[in-house]
Amino acid sequence: MMALHPTLAKVTDRIVARSRDTRAAYLALIDRAREAGVNRPTLSCGNLAHGFAASGEDKAALRGGKALNIGIVTAYNDMLSAHQPYGRYPEQIKLFAREVGATAQVAGGVPAMCDGVTQGQDSMELSLFSRDTIAMSTAVGLSHGMFEAALFLGICDKIVPGLIIGGLRFGHLPTILVPSGPMPTGLANKEKVRIRQLYAEGKVGREELLESESASYHGPGTCTFYGTANSNQMMMEMMGLHMPGSSFVLPGTKLRQELTRAAVHRVAQIGWDGDDYRPLGHCVDEKAIINAVVGLLATGGSTNHVIHIPAMARAAGVQIDWDDMDELSRVVPLIASVYPNGAGDVNYFHAAGGMPYVIRELLDNGLAHGDIMTVYGTSLAQGAQEPVMDGDTLTWNPAPTTSVDESMLRPVTAPFQPEGGLRLLQGNLGRGTIKVSAVDPSRWTIEAPARVFDDQNDVLKAFKAGELEKDVVVVVRFQGPAANGMPELHKLTPPLGVLQDRGFRVALVTDGRMSGASGKVPAAIHVSPEARKGGPLARLRDGDVVRVCAQSGQLEVLVSEAEWAAREDAPAPVEAMGVGRELFALMRHHSDPAERGGSAMLAAAGL
């Protein structure tokens, strides 16, 4: 293992220094929770009786107070394919817990919103704030004080960050995240994109589109493209919060079940009454957060995590910003090419060596912190192992030293790109993010007249009317957390892709989000400050020439300073009602900027 890269060391030291007071306050908080918080020994007899009244055959063990009790927080629902496999996990976990003299109870459920179902719909405006709702739901479940350890069952976009944020407020509890795996590979991603673009052009109908989508998303498990859900799984491995190599094992297999059993047995071993106590709040430190960022960059992960990582970090008293991420991106090479950055999906990625290969390769080249407290061992290096079944026994083999498929995974010495997939953009239009891992370098700089919209549906109308058949920077503003909850604008990808394929130079600029499936069209996203809070996008007008440059990090409107200063902000749209959006008004009105995580909850808590 090489010495830590000097840029990683510098950024880590800077974050540690910046976080000194908040991290110290956080660690003091969880120390108090362990010693004098709401825990089983402090509960009254009435409290305890309520807590084990319905616990069946575990009732005697819970009443006796000697067995470690594991709190399960589950995101199960059977509408969401990634979480449908969790339906029977609690009963399995209870059986596995009894094997090691422990007990388990479902502490609570959290909502599990599918951005795939809500994509392009009004209900997508609840999506980002569902993360904070999940965090609060996690806290409600764990607040009963009945548990000495926890298992979190969650995979997808806002769910894992929400579980982590909520769990970190109970950071004295040892906690392992338990994945359920991706669905098997379906229709080739390239074909799916082709059909979507044909539909956008009106060349195929809804029935052909539905058939294509159904062949892509076809069974239990995570969607197989490398979006936010699968990036979540990567980050949990980089932070040492999964059992090694467990992210991308298919649901319903013996190996999947044995990895769940291993997680249950392990969390019992690291409980607070043993000699190997590993509380979540100590596992998630500055170095673990850096590892999450490095993994995101090295694998071309979801843009959503430049919002989620700062939010998760804040919950642990760690302060990280986009400058830190941008600096790391300049030295972390892109070593994975997973759709939408490449042809193959996460199943091909896993077969090529997957996360064990990525972890080993990064550690061997000084590009990750090995000395973190993981849930499974003494260092992250122990995460560079592949789980396999030896008959009926789960074992782990060392990660491969070479990639099985260099179209999917490459060594640090011969990467797909010399830098990570994310860059910071800034200028007189604010600060934003661009994901370039799937963008051809010839399109890293776009300079063209702006066409300004306040609603993504108006973009589609203009496209269908032929109004965008030119070099254009499409600007969609009033899409930030304070305006409408910062929805993903992924349904703009097909029409913008069509325009680009027709030879036009096209870019998107928005204070909203794109999906983890952001692809080949350059997109400056999360622009902050947002238009709703007086950000510069509110002053843009149709025809203004905008420059988006990933090379130089520019996000500029080419208007004279005098004219720019004289302009008034465009009026913000009236807040919409329906599909529950009005219930989230409190979160919109008090949310903080995207770079801080876009959270009213964390802002109000002073974190």
Summarize the helices and strands and which ones pair or pack.
Layout: H1 6-18, H2 20-36, H3 45-52, H4 59-64, E1 69-74, H5 89-98, E2 103-109, H6 115-118, H7 127-142, E3 149-153, H8 159-168, E4 175-177, H9 189-200, H10 206-216, H11 228-238, H12 254-269, H13 280-283, H14 286-299, H15 305-315, H16 322-329, H17 346-352, H18 354-364, E5 385-390, E6 393-398, E7 422-427, E8 430-435, E9 445-453, H19 456-464, E10 472-476, H20 481-484, H21 493-501, E11 506-510, E12 523-528, E13 545-549, E14 554-557, H22 561-566, H23 585-590, H24 600-605
Parallel strand pairs: 1-2, 1-3, 3-4, 9-10, 10-11, 11-12
Antiparallel strand pairs: 5-6, 7-8, 8-12, 9-13, 13-14
